[in-house]
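Section 5.1 Outputs to date
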Amino acid sequence: MNIDPSHVAANRALTFGESELPFVSNRRSEIPPALPELDPKQRPAARGKFLFVGDEKFHVRGVTYGTFRPQVDGAEFPAPEVVERDFALMAAHGINSCRTYTVPPRWMLDAAARHGLRLLVGIPVERHIGYLTDRKGAPDTARVVRAGVAACAGHPAVLAYAIGNEIPASSARWHGRREVERFLERLFHAVRDEDGEALVTYVNYPSTEYLDLPFLDFTSFNVFLESRAPLAAYLARLQHIAGERPLVLTEVGLDSLRNGDAAQARTLDWQIRTSFAEGCAGLYVYSWTDEWYRAGEDVFDWKFGLTDRERSAKPALAAVQAAYGDTPFSADVRWPRISVVVCTYNGQRTIRDCMEGVRRLRYPDLEVIVVNDGSKDQTPAIVGEYDVRLISTENHGLSAARNTGWQAATGEIVAYLDDDAYPDPDWLTHLAATFLRSTHVGVGGPNIAPPGDGKIAKCVALAPGNPTHVMLTDREAEHIPGCNMAFQRAALEAVGGFDPRFRVAGDDVDICWSLRERGGTLGFSPAAVVWHHRRNSVRAYWKQQVGYGRAEGLLERKWPEKYTATGQIAWAGRLYGMASLPAAPWRVARIYHGIWGFAPFQRLYAPTPTWLGAMALAPEWYLPIFALMLMAGLGIKWAPLLLAIPLLALATLPLLLRASVAARIAFPRSLARRRIRQRALTAVLHMLHPLARLYGRLSRPTAPRPARWGRWGSVALWCEQWRDPAERLSRIERALRAAGAATRKGDEFERFDLEVRGGLLGGARLLMAVEEHGRGMQLVRVRWWLKPSTGGVALTAGLAGVAIAAIVTTAWIPAAVFGAAALWCAWHESIDCVRAAGDIRHAVPQAGDD
């Protein structure tokens, strides 16, 4: 890795080696002066992967509080003077939030506000989960929730409401996943009915990880893992479960009774630092005090508190204060220099947002380079208002602009941002932190549609075809989108930068494949967020997808081995997005419960996409549909063609599957009419997506290639210079690719070495054998033959058969139409085959001596 080794300090957590733990007095501390009260006009909000209060990011640095023995009035909290002292000590030790497990009284909210604390208010609905089965005499849980919210609604100390905590895995298994999800959704709406601006969450844990709760404002998990590596790995998984929402850990901690005070302090230190390093929006340490009351009795055999039952501080309190004061990023880190490159072409509509976002970046060592790729609008003038380096060139396309950027960069890392996107202020810091603690040559992050872009943009964000990352594991990516990607400059130089043939799109996929082909890996940072505007009209969406279709055609020609027979990219990883490859609706997901439901980590295993799902996303699938529609239309002239109608119905099954995906998308709660319109538009976009991609592929201008024609043949090359046979084949492959031919290696079970695609309907294959004749002399035999595509042969034969049948029955119009179509397919099939054979014949001499 080409980063200064001294930068590894970024990954060094606070340790307690030879030095002693920070001194902590066992005397009860005096109450420090109260902090400024909270502003009641600033309600907390969830935006992207973080929580905000007003325009300021709110990193939760919290502790849990309770449960306590009930007072005479039923309140499950200590006396007011004890709470006042506790809150004052929390604030004095850098804590800004407190989690309760029951609804606090109003005086307690007032005390929290006086000390600048925000409360995550727990409403213990898990106590009523059994009533899902035994409904007789059951309390109205929604009414209980509304009453609890009404007692706190609008108070400035309320951070959010937690509708339940760890519904037992056995109860969730008994009632079923769907029933529990519906139960929690009803309670979510009960909160919103009472306090429409409040944030709502549910506190989950690994044993019910499978619950799908997309309506929540942020994702909350209790995670007790006592080793650093498993915690980091599980948090990476939870980030993907959270998706585009914040992830908050609502309980972490260690029992000092069994592990000792020093171990508790050390563990809490790395738990806090690891949680923020993995992109969490915050966490709550369990708990503030050893005083704990549960199930009708005081608990003495667990000691998770930062203070003991008499509120004397343990060493853990000082460790938590130090860790909270040093997060989310340590002040001691030596950050690498980063060059931010923004490539723009006629981007005046969004470039100002981009520049404003760049101006707000919080990073100590960066430069900003804007490459103006021949814009004809006011883009250069707008960029000129900001303190950035502007490079103007003629219009050569996106890849050329990206190359101009990294070649002019002075940073060790080059981070790319699109002109219709703007970054989170800590975007670069999260990217750099991932580089520092890994050996990745590239790192990306999520791109999220900003709020307020309009209803059409919202539907476009839920449609397929938007930029998304492809993950091999929870941390390693196969592809990172161009609107949010960063690379080591040396790695870009090693692969020669971006391929200039990708003028509009596809450059990000190509560079990722190129880097991985050279042995590099790509990372993913869930907190490195950019806000990426989606297209705000159906026409703009169509134009974008047509451009992506053209890029796919270029990618398939350059990387044919990456594509399936249906024309889809054969990703090795998984697409993390709203509209990934659909599975058949009758194939249900399964939950791993473990034997008798006792597995500590219970996960949802989604069904793998079937061939039907693959067809739903294949643009070429529309071609047989159009052909069947033509046949059904000609059935007016020739009745046998009406048999195409049932075939047409079968052919549309993948499209119905695509429509079902759109129908299952969860929309925000709104007026029914608006929701119906949103669903209808999203379904239309799902149907337009493959059409636009198909049009883009078919309309892609082909690069001029010399006309090389050939047929099957063979040669024998006498070579007096010994070479490894694999090297001779590689020389042929390089010559073919240099000539613009699309090549594919034969796999372990195929009887050919290279296949050259002449076009959609045909190609040619090559086989090589080497005879060893001693003293380094070799006889290289190469044979090649024509290989029409199976689909092309079937299509030609089918069309010819229909034409012959029409001639026999004197249906001349259908006979002429299908006969002409069969001749057209046969002609192009031949052209594709002989062109591929000509390319092979021209490249074969490369297998011989120089």
